[in-house]
Amino acid sequence: MTPPLGDIAHIGHAQLFTPDLDASVAFFTDFLGLTVNGQDGDTVYLRTFDDYEHHSLVLTAREQPGLGRLALRTSSEEALRRRVEAIEAAGGTGKWTEDEPGLGRLYVTTDPDGHEHALYWESEHYQAPRALKPSLKNQPQAKPNRGVGVRRLDHINFLAADVLANAEWQEQLLGARPTEQIRLDSGKIAARWLTYTDKSYDVVYTSDWTGSEGSAAPHRLRHRHPRGHPARRRPRHRHRRLHRDGAAQARHPADVLPLRLRTRRQPHRTLQPAHPSRPRSRLAAHHLDRGGAQEGAGLGLEDHRVLPHARHAARAALI
Description:
The chain is of the alpha+beta class. The longest helix has 13 residues. It contains 4 helices and 13 strands.
């Protein structure tokens, strides 16, 4: 049985491996505006200014770049226990550890492709130092006056050898819901978007044509804004100038990774802007299934009758 939506409250943080730790830290602080909030040997903890937890991103020195741990905070201690029991009842394995500052126990396990996931509940609220104290009490930190000024970690894009197996693992054991997918003409699922909450998506699995699995798979940085987003109009060019005018260019593969970072508050986060279909890709504008959408059932409006839930929980009344 699919677990109830809500056991996973939100993405906590992600870990990236980098062969050049200093250059990567400089890129995320100088160009993207994150703040360093601790270091332990070859691991640096950074945070976005709107995150209430200790860190949003972990950079760890490693010979090859890649995506390490994805941490997910549960909605309660009971929700954490339910997810751990579900994983182990399905034959999965994991271990308990306390190896990150500001967090309690983490249950570390892997998806079918080998990507490491850590589930946790206990978390300390971030206390900003005097220099970063916000003027409003409902904000955890003042926005740094440098770089893009990333507000939060938005979603993670995994490359996977078997998209369907990994997506179903998220759905059946963690309670994620699919909101969109790409189905090829062959019937194979080439990508699937999933959410733990009522936003458009938190995790994406995309087919990895190299056949690599886990953290060995190559990754891409997805930094874009939805159509109509205020940051899409002019500041985009400003961000490019920040990168161009810097003394060190962040062109190492370690800086080309699968994170999407949100820079400003989006009024309607549950709404995913519709993009017009393009004749060359044979898409149906009203359909959610992007590839081969006219050749079989997908996750579009016509197929809500076969789903146990609406695409967007917040918009269920409109369907």
